Amino acid sequence: MRSVRSAALRLAVAGCAALAGCTVGPDYARPQPPTTPAAFKELPPPGAAGAWKPAQPNDATLRGKWWELYGEPELNALEDKIAVSNQSLKAATEQYLAATEQIRVARAAYFPTLGVTPAASRTRLSNNQPNVVPGVTKMTYNAFILQGQASWEPDLWGQVRRTIEQARASAQASAADLAGVALSLHSELALDYFQLRGLDLQRQLLDNTLASDADYLKLTQVRFAGGVATAVDVAQADTQYRSVKAQAIDVGVARAQFEHAIATLIGVPPAEFALPPHPLEVKIPPIPTGVPSALLERRPDVAGAERRVAAANAQIGIAISAYYPNLTLTAAGGLEATALSPLIGVHSLFWSLGASAFELLFDGGRRHALTQQARDLYEAQVATYRQSVLSAFQDVEDNLAAIRILADEAEAQDAAVEAARLSLALSTKRYKGGVATYLEVLTAQTTQLANERAQADVSTRRCTASVQLIRALGGGWDTAQAPQ
After folding, report:
1. How many helices (H) and strands (E) does the chain have?
2. Which of 462, 447, 379, 383 is nearest to 417 (CA)?
């Protein structure tokens, strides 16, 4: 009696579930991120060198083509080629499209499967077969069958719904990954471009210094011929000239590598690509940073990590649904005859309807282990999401600090360059007046060149830090662009 009642109860529950659409497992709620500060720590104070203001509601924010902020038409043209020719971006795009197709695969489980089986055969029975009556039983006959089948498993416990939920979250994570790849490629191109232009600035500086050193060499040679200077002065001037020439040549190694890297990013063989020299002359634009809480919506990697948490949560529901019985509804029907002429007729019709349920009673703890595994993987994804948030905050703070400190360094370095130029001018005057040796001039030359190269290096680093900050801020992407 108890078993009958239990069976009746299960049937009643199954019937209610079929009508109400029960979904087992936890509903998703976004995990709480780590403590979010009200403002970034490393923002420069208002009015300071390199100060960048937080975005206000009416401020212009970063947009898709953020590289246009720098006003470099050549950079803009190169960046546009990434979307057309970069193979890494194409691979990420195809992975995203594959993830979206998985949603359709999961959604197909909502619907019944239909099939048709046409068949034709000719059969000869054995005379010794049981129940064969010679002269009465037809020993040879044809069979023509046109049969259709249908099978449907109602989503009683939400397994299909959770599977679709998981596939959708995974596709959204893949979309965030695609945005992250695009952001990485565009920022890498900008970094390579500015570093290449920084090397062009270095080469221009060295060429100018080389021309000045050639004049100094001629001056010492003339003074030596006139008996005013010594052979040591000539040797020192010649050494300085050749040393600067070697440095100018050495710049070409790194420049060629950056040029090759840019060619690869835009999908062009390095042998077919060249950028004419153009010294760095970029004015760093002010970039609104926004508040830290907004960063969670603008970073593709953070958004992707959060969507993977949602997918892991759905997997828990899928695992829990295995504890409940499955109901399968089947139907079959068709036409059968021994000849083609009477096949299409009411007397050739056959059909069947059926239903079956399956409940797993013992599996050695497999379902429990899979459910616990899903919960553990969910917690792992939550930890990954929270770590990605912390890393995002760190990226922004690092580059804000770099921009603030490099702005101060640039001011100090500009002053150092002016002082070095004045020192060289005074030493040259003293040397021409015969009150100083060429060693004093040589020391001033070396000091000026070192400071001018440091000045060029700081300018390059400020550009690259601004690009890295834009990348840390998400490059103008936000979760509203993710597919829903």
Report:
1. 9, 4
2. 447
Give the span between the Cα atoms of 282 and 257, in whole angstroms: 21
Residue 53's SS3 state is coil
Question: Strand order of the sheet with strand 113-124?
Answer: 113-124, 140-152, 326-337, 349-358
Contact assessment for residue 392 and residue 302, using Cβ atoms and an 8 Å cutoff: yes
Contact assessment for residue 41 and residue 397, using Cβ atoms and an 8 Å cutoff: yes
- At 387, list the tokens: 């770590």
Q: Which residues contact 153 (CB under 8 A, 6 or more apart)?
A: 109, 326, 327, 328, 329
With tokens 């490629």, the residue in question is 185
One-letter amino acid identity for 171? A
Is residue 2 very low, low, confident or very high in pLDDT (cuts 50, 70, 90)?
very low
Long-range contacts: 191-195, Cβ < 8 Å, 24+? 191/464, 191/467, 191/468, 192/258, 192/261, 192/262, 192/265, 193/72, 193/74, 193/75, 193/78, 193/258, 193/262, 194/280, 194/282, 194/460, 194/463, 194/464, 194/467, 195/254, 195/258, 195/460, 195/464
Confidence check: pLDDT of 1 > 60: no
β-strand pairing of 326-337 with 349-358: antiparallel
Residues 307/172, Cβ–Cβ less than 8 Å: yes
Sequence-ordered list of residues with C-beta below 8 angstroms from that of 248, at least 6 positions apart, any chain: 203, 206, 207, 210
The confidence score (pLDDT) of residue 36 equals 83
Mean pLDDT of 439-447: 94
Instruction: Indicate if the pLDDT at residue 10 is higher than 70.
Output: no
* pLDDT for the residue 208: 95
pLDDT in tens, 188-210: 999 999 999 999 999 999 999 99
Position 58 scores a pLDDT of: 39
Spatial separation of the C-alpha atoms in residues 300 and 475, rounded to whole Å: 9
Provide φ and ψ at 249, rounded to 5°.
Answer: -70, -40
Q: In the prediction, which pLDDT does 72 show? A: 93
Neighbours of 482 (CB within 10 A): 20
SS3 assignment, position 412:
helix
Question: Is this prediction's pTM over 0.70?
Answer: yes
- In angstroms, the Cα distances linking 375 to 143, 307, 369, 381 are 55, 16, 10, 10
Domain 21-85+155-324+365-481 has CATH 1.20.1600.10: yes
Q: How far is CA 225 from the centre of its chain?
A: 67
